[in-house]
């Protein structure tokens, strides 16, 4: 049983590595999010100016379309209060679907502290209308950690 589980995890890690490597090679996506499905299309988000967003209608992921950035209309206003001189390059987005919405977490950083993780939501990815939910966590210059590279998961008890 344990051997079987270890084998399955190893296969998953290998598939993930090769998928991410292929995505980076073909699309130039840095820090890709997980792949998420909505209305017949697969979506991936990545580090970039305004957050890089691509989609594919093919389960073979052979053809990709660059989508409109969640921040095409500008940066959320709260950012300038926490990360001065932010240039608009959002890092390491991560997306999940829960409670009838897509939750897109992202990092705001200039390479050091202060830095923050923010959140936008939308009910659909096919014609997204993003709503800024503000800052989730913040690191200032006296923090020993940096609030970057968000990840969202459920524990074994189903708690977020």
Task: Give the gist of this structure.
The chain has helices at 2-27, 79-82, and strands at 36-38, 41-46, 48-49, 52-56, 65-66, 89-98, 101-108, 115-122, 131-139. By secondary structure, the protein is of the alpha+beta class. The protein has a domain at 31-139: Tachylectin-2, Chain A (5 Propeller).
Q: Residue ranges: pLDDT <50 for 5 or more in a row?
A: 7-18
Using the alpha-carbon principal axes, give the shape. Answer: globular
User: Structural class of the secondary elements?
Assistant: alpha+beta
Largest sheet: 5 strands, antiparallel
CATH class of the domain at 31-139: Mainly Beta
Helical content (DSSP H or I, runs of 4+): 10-25%
Distance between the termini: 27 Å
> What strand order characterises the main sheet?
3-6-7-8-9
Oligomer: single chain
From the alpha carbons, calculate the radius of gyration and give it in angstroms: 17 Å
Order of helices and strands: HEEEEEHEEEE
What does this structure look like?
It is built from two helices and nine strands, in the order αβββββαββββ. By secondary structure, the chain is an alpha+beta fold. It has a domain of 109 residues: 5 Propeller (Tachylectin-2, Chain A), CATH 2.115.10. The longest helix is centred in the N-terminal third of the chain and has 26 residues. The relative contact order is 0.14. About 8% of the residues have low confidence.
